[in-house]
Every structure is written in C-alpha cells, then in structure tokens.
C-alpha cells in the first residue's frame, strides 16, 4: 500500500505531495524563457519524475528541499529556466 507523502511548507504546516505543482512550476519556468511547448513538457516531465521518486523515498520532505532539488534538475536541462525558477518562486 502506498504511504501518503507530506510536504512541510515554509510556515511549518503540511500538505499532501502533489506532483502537478512540481510539473506546473517547472513547465512555467521553461515557458518564461521562451522554450517551445514540447520542450517545456519534456523537461517538466523529467523533473517531475525525478522529484516524485525522491519524495517517495521519504516520509516527509520540506518544500525548501523540493525547491532546491527542482533547481538542480532544471539546471541539467536549461540553466535559464533554473534561474527563473530560483528567482521567481511564485511564477506557476
């Protein structure tokens, strides 16, 4: 049975992990730097897959930890998108 995963937010409250939020923010970061739709989807899918794998290895994870892992994953694909994600935390 799959165990429920929680993300501890910046103000110390917890939410269920939602991979759509990771996908949306990664996609938005790619879109803002003018990547085409297909490239945005491809990168966002890869980032989401890797972050979801990381989250499932833990009982809880902080949103800050997810944030830093997303930056690392985005840098593997597009440094400009990673920069936008890192400096514009609310773009999605």
Mean pLDDT: 91
Work out the helix count: 4
Low-confidence stretches: none
Strand percentage = 5-15%
The number of E-state strands comes to 3
Distance between the termini: 31 Å
- Structural class, by secondary structure, is mainly alpha
User: What share of residues is helical?
Assistant: 55-70%
**What is the chains' assembly state?**
single chain
Description:
There is one protein chain. The chain is mainly alpha-helical. It has one domain (6-87). 63% of the residues lie in helices and 10% in strands. Strands 2-1-3 form a three-stranded mixed beta sheet. Helix 1 (19-32) crosses helix 4 and helix 2 crosses helix 3. It is globular and about 35 Å long. The model has no long low-confidence stretch (mean pLDDT 91).
Set out the fold topology.
Blueprint: E1 6-8, E2 14-16, H1 19-32, H2 37-56, E3 60-62, H3 63-77, H4 79-87
Parallel strand pairs: 1-3
Antiparallel strand pairs: 1-2
Structure in a nutshell:
This protein is mainly alpha-helical and 92 residues long. Helices cover 63% and strands 10% of the residues.
